[in-house]
From TrEMBL:
Phylogenetic classification of the source organism: Eukaryota, Metazoa, Chordata, Craniata, Vertebrata
Protein's UniProt keywords contain Repressor: no
Gene3D superfamilies: Alpha carbonic anhydrase
Protein's job: Reversible hydration of carbon dioxide.
Record organism: Crotalus adamanteus (Eastern diamondback rattlesnake)
Family the UniProt entry places it in: Belongs to the alpha-carbonic anhydrase family.
UniProt keyword terms in alphabetical order: Acetylation, Cytoplasm, Glutathionylation, Lyase, Metal-binding, Phosphoprotein, Zinc
GO molecular function: carbonate dehydratase activity; zinc ion binding
Protein name: Carbonic anhydrase
Cofactor: Zn(2+)
A UniProt-annotated Pfam family: Carb_anhydrase
Entry keyword Lyase: yes
Reaction(s) this enzyme catalyzes, per UniProt: hydrogencarbonate + H(+) = CO2 + H2O
Length: 287
């Protein structure tokens, strides 16, 4: 359960001196999840992170508007579009070919066709935290994000400049007795991408196998949960979580946020704290 104030776990190690020197040059290491460069500091480099439409948010079922106009959403994912699996140092990421409308999502709250670009996972140092969205005061062990962009725009970068430029499907992960077997395909690749920057081929993967049986959802307008935190995202947060087991979570926690030549630092607690909802409406399907 989540109280009025959120407490983040202390990271195992502070950024080494070499990393801090790199940060001063303005490269990708300028943000992270440690005390020194974590979410409380992101707005210093990326001012939009203090915007009025940031994510994630707390969702309270009793306050959600049940919108009869919301339709079901559909995906058409080509397993051949899956390219690679990578440890970015911030997350586990699966990349997909988005050069044409090969793997897409449409319907629901979306105004058009959106192309699948990548899948990210967020998780905690323990199984009572890790998800970014919180539903009815419950934080789950992790959260999978399927990131898409509006194909009516010329490219991914262009889409992120538009308020309807991106769509993210969020799947909550809870530790249970009957883990979803489809997670095994991702988990078994982890030993090959232990350290930051490591990647491996990841062909023939259809991420729709990760969806829960019930596709009902919450939706609202928000932002990316990682810098630059652009406010261009239509969120589709699945109401029903999927089950994973503790061994699968331990495997995710075995990844390192550092490169192979640096000391091992567990990649954990890569989740952003809740952001103010402000005047936004959260809608859901009526079922």
């Amino acid at each position: 359960m989540v109280g009025a104030s959120e407490v983040r776990g202390q990271r195992c190690c502070s950024p080494p001196e070499k990393m801090m020197r790199k940060q001063s040059t303005g490269d990708a290491l300028t943000w992270g999840y440690s005390k020194e460069n974590g979410p409380d500091h992101w707005h210093e480099t990326y001012p939009i992170a203090k915007g009025n439409n940031q994510s994630p948010v707390a969702i309270l079922s009793k306050d959600v508007f049940k919108d009869p106009a919301l339709l079901p959403w559909f995906t058409g994912y080509d397993p051949g579009a899956a390219k690679n699996i990578r440890n970015t140092g911030k997350t586990l990421r699966i990349g997909f070919d988005d050069t044409f409308d090969r793997s897409v999502i449409r319907g629901g709250p979306l105004p058009g066709i959106y192309r699948l670009r990548h899948l990210n996972i967020h998780w905690g140092s323990t199984s009572d935290k890790g998800s970014e969205h919180v539903v009815d005061a419950k934080r789950h062990a992790g959260e999978i994000h399927l990131v898409h962009w509006n194909s009516s725009y010329s490219n991914y970068a262009d889409a992120l400049r538009k308020t309807d430029g991106a769509a993210i499907v969020a799947i909550l992960m809870q530790v249970g007795k009957n883990p979803k077997p489809e997670m095994k395909r991702i988990i078994e690749e982890i030993d090959g991408i232990k350290t930051k920057g490591k990647e491996a081929p990841f062909p023939n993967f259809d991420p729709s196998i990760l969806f829960p049986q019930n596709r009902s959802y919450f939706t609202y307008q928000g932002s990316f949960t990682m810098p630059p935190c652009e406010e261009c995202v239509t969120w589709i947060v699945m109401k029903e979580p999927i089950s994973v087991d503790e061994q699968q979570m331990l495997k995710l926690r075995s990844l390192s946020s550092n490169s192979a030549e640096d000391i091992h630092c567990p990649l954990v607690d890569n989740w952003r704290p809740l952001q103010p909802l402000n005047n936004r409406m959260i809608r859901s399907t009526c079922q």
